[in-house]
Structures are given as C-alpha cells and as structure tokens.
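Board notes (copied after class):
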Amino acid sequence: MVRRRGIYEVNVIGKPLVCLFCEETRFRHREVYVKLTNHEPGVQKKKLTLQSFSCITCAHEMKFEERELNGVSTIEYVQVGD
C-alpha cells in the first residue's frame, strides 16, 4: 500500500467524485495492491491495483481500478492541500 501525502479533488470518468455520505469533494489518496488468487492448478496469481480515496470529513472510503480509455486515464486527481 502506498499513501500519497496531500488532499485531492478527483474526477472519475470525467465526473467529480463526491462522498456519498457527506457530499465532500476532497479526499486523501492511496494505492492498494491486491493479489488475486485463483485456485486452479497452473494458473498464476494476478495483481490488482486500486486507487483508494478516503473522505477528509467522514473517512468514507471508495476504491476504483484505474484504466486507460483511448489513451486517457479514467481517474484524474489534483492536489488541493497538504
């Protein structure tokens, strides 16, 4: 897990991310690495990287997998504070 310092405003697929509980638009950010285990013999484990955003007001956490569509990332974040 990697935590980035600072507070961010986030766009997911071109729309602003808003906390579902308190409607805050600023989040703390970290990357979460998950190993996916497949119980079939001979199949390798896969690694999934999630972008995790935690609301600075109520600490509600949302996770998204970052992908590229037509060369553009589905998640954009801009640092707005420390």
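Comment from the instructor: The two ends are 20 Å apart (CA to CA). The chain has no helices and eight strands.
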